[in-house]
Design brief:
The protein has 292 residues and is mainly α. 84% of the residues lie in helices and 0% in strands. The longest helix is centred in the first third of the chain and has 43 residues. The radius of gyration is 22 Å and the shape is globular.
């Protein structure tokens, strides 16, 4: 009886060791999308009145958690009964991520007019109008989170294909929790950065005090931090997409073997991204002509 119990503990310890190693690998693979998720949500949660930023972020966080609850069982069922679907979804996800990265670069290089987004703090609105705008922005953020969550879960699952189902479930669930709690926790700190800075300035009694100096830095840093996250997230998106193509498509895997993997993955992700972007823009123009 005693030996059986200790054998069980050894098995559990072995599983946890495997999970720790696999979680580390999965976290590295999904880091690019987590960075983009962080940038997107920091941007979406920062356009509100100060008193509404955290309630809005909490609403998005709950939606993100629900997304993971929906996605995880489907992903595990596909892994158990139709594993080839995981590879197909990874490649399709790579196309989406490459397109998204290429679109951001295109918009930066070729500036064009954007529709002005509705602001909450720029004009006086009633409480009902504010709630309507908040609900629309929260809904949009949750939809974006769903797409990113699918990719995070599938990429994490792709790193543990062939492992025991228990290890898969634990590893991918850990990544899903990190993707929700970690990302939105950091976003909460980022969007409150300017508020902390304002309070430090208000509590500063001296004109040239350290408190006021740090407060000014925090206030001025928020837009720069979000912009930096956007740039880092875009580069990471293309790298992740290129990695998905290289590791799941035989042709790309053997292409340019002398090139450093990071250069090859970025180049492939970027080229395919612009190809997909061109196709999407072409279809948009055709559709616009038909509806005109």
């Amino acid at each position: 009886m005693g030996s059986g119990f200790f054998a069980l503990l050894d098995d559990i310890a072995a599983i946890m060791d495997d999970v720790a190693v696999m979680s580390k690998v999965a976290a590295k693979k999904t880091a690019g999308i987590l960075g983009d998720d962080l940038a997107v949500n920091a941007e979406k949660a920062s356009g509100f009145a100060s008193s509404r930023e955290l309630p809005v972020l909490w609403a998005i966080s709950k939606g993100s958690l629900l997304n993971k609850i929906i996605i995880l069982p489907i992903a595990f069922l596909l892994s158990a009964f139709f594993p080839i679907a995981i590879m197909v979804i990874l490649v399709l996800g790579g196309l989406f991520l490459a397109y998204e990265g290429a679109e951001k670069i295109y918009e930066f290089i070729v500036p064009h007019k954007h529709e002005e987004s509705e602001g909450i703090t720029d004009e006086v609105l009633t409480e009902e109008e504010i709630l309507v705008i908040e609900k629309e922005k929260v809904k949009s953020a949750i939809v974006t989170d769903f797409i990113l969550s699918v990719e995070i879960v599938i990429i994490a699952l792709g790193t543990v294909i062939g492992k025991p189902l228990t290890s898969q479930i634990i590893t991918v669930s850990i990544i899903a929790v990190i993707a929700t709690v970690g990302v939105y926790g950091i976003v909460a700190l980022i969007v409150r950065m300017d508020e902390v800075g304002f309070k430090m300035i208000q509590h500063s009694k001296k004109e040239n005090s350290i408190l006021k100096f740090v407060g000014n830095i925090l206030v001025q840093a928020l837009p720069k931090v979000i912009k930096a996250l956007t740039v880092i997230g875009t580069i990471a998106l293309i790298l992740v997409a290129g990695g998905l193509f290289v590791h799941n498509i035989e042709f790309f895997h053997h292409l340019l073997p002398s090139f450093p993997s990071i250069v090859k993955e970025f180049a492939i992700g970027l080229i395919i991204g612009f190809i997909v972007l061109g196709i999407v823009n072409l279809f948009k123009k055709i559709f616009q002509k038909k509806t005109a």
